[in-house]
Design a protein that fits this description.
This protein has helices at about 30-40, 45-55, 60-65, 65-70, 75-80, 115-125, 130-150, 175-185, 190-200, 205-210, 215-230, 240-270; strands spanning about 5-10, 15, 90, 95-100, 165-170, 170-175, 235. By secondary structure, the protein is mainly α. The longest helix is centred in the C-terminal third of the chain and has 30 residues, at about 240-270. It starts with 6 loop residues before the first strand and ends in a 19-residue tail after the last helix.
Length: about 290
């Protein structure tokens, strides 16, 4: 069995728990599709061509929900192991996660979302990997980039990423996790294509800022947002909460789409310019 290879960067903010919580839902279907749809507007022609056999007739928006849909499959991987791919728990007192471009995880032993992204990237880079293995890796990677931008996929294990925190949404009982992955998005009454169109950006300064990051950065950002929401401890959600927090939801979805495109361009188009179309990850020697 391969040892866990995530390197830990010692810093002074909240950290990851070694004990993972029970499964949490991801962005709702529309959230994931919005991320995939935005990404499709920012991948290069070279990347689009490389993705054709991997997508097998689907779009990035279509495959974005696959990793959640497959959790009902009877195979042992989906029933016993796949849930760990979707999140990472933070616990105050340890270190931040550090993306390891040299990590080579085993599909069966992936223990959190960062390892899941590392595994998927390594498979897509592996010229010896089969088409089926690469299709699996791409579908999971599209989903996990979306998940990494949902604040409560980098939340606390003790409340299962907000799943155990009860709130009301205009008087309807729900929980904090569900509020952020589904209800705030669906309250806009937009299709995923409309939502993606409304929040997509061509602002190059903003895109450059988003692309100067690595997968660990996305999780740290999510944890910082989750902590602020934990601290506010608002349980009766209505118009004022939406006014304050919906812009954060839109930003996270926008960032997820731009960064997914940047990651795919990094993997499939060597001519894609970092900080323009591809990621530039300052703390990593390579991707």
């Amino acid at each position: 069995m391969l040892q866990k290879t995530i390197k830990m960067l010692l810093l002074s903010t909240p950290v990851i728990s070694a004990v993972l919580s029970t499964p949490a839902n991801a962005w709702g279907q529309n959230g994931h599709r919005i991320v995939g749809e935005i990404a499709s507007k920012h991948i290069t022609d070279t990347t689009k061509l490389a993705l054709v056999p991997l997508l097998d007739g689907d779009s990035l928006a279509q495959v974005a929900t696959w990793a959640d849909e497959m959790r009902s499959a009877p195979e042992n991987f989906w029933q016993k192991k796949s849930s760990r791919w979707h999140y990472i728990n933070f616990k105050e007192g340890d270190a931040k996660p550090h993306y390891d471009s040299d990590a080579h995880h085993n599909k069966e032993t992936v223990s959190d979302i960062l390892e899941g992204m590392e595994y998927s990237i390594s498979v897509l880079q592996n010229q010896k990997a089969s088409l089926a293995e690469k299709q699996f890796a791409l579908r999971f990677l599209v989903h996990l980039v979306g998940d990494s931008h949902q604040p409560f996929h980098a939340g606390r294990g003790e409340d299962r990423g907000g799943n155990n925190i009860s709130v009301t949404f205009f008087g309807q009982d729900t929980n904090l996790h569900s509020l952020w992955d589904t209800k705030l998005i669906e309250n806009e009454n937009l299709s995923y294509t409309e939502f993606a169109q409304f929040i997509n950006t061509t602002n190059q300064a903003l895109i450059t800022d988003y692309l100067a990051s690595s997968p660990s950065d996305w999780l740290i950002e999510s944890n910082n947002i989750a902590n602020s929401l934990y601290n506010e401890n608002e349980t009766n959600v209505s118009y004022s909460y939406i006014y304050k927090n919906l812009p954060i939801v839109k930003t996270r979805l926008q960032q997820g789409g731009i960064r997914l495109a940047g990651l795919l361009n990094t993997l499939f188009d060597k001519s894609a310019k970092p900080l323009v179309k591809a990621l530039k990850m300052p703390t990593d020697s390579k991707l």
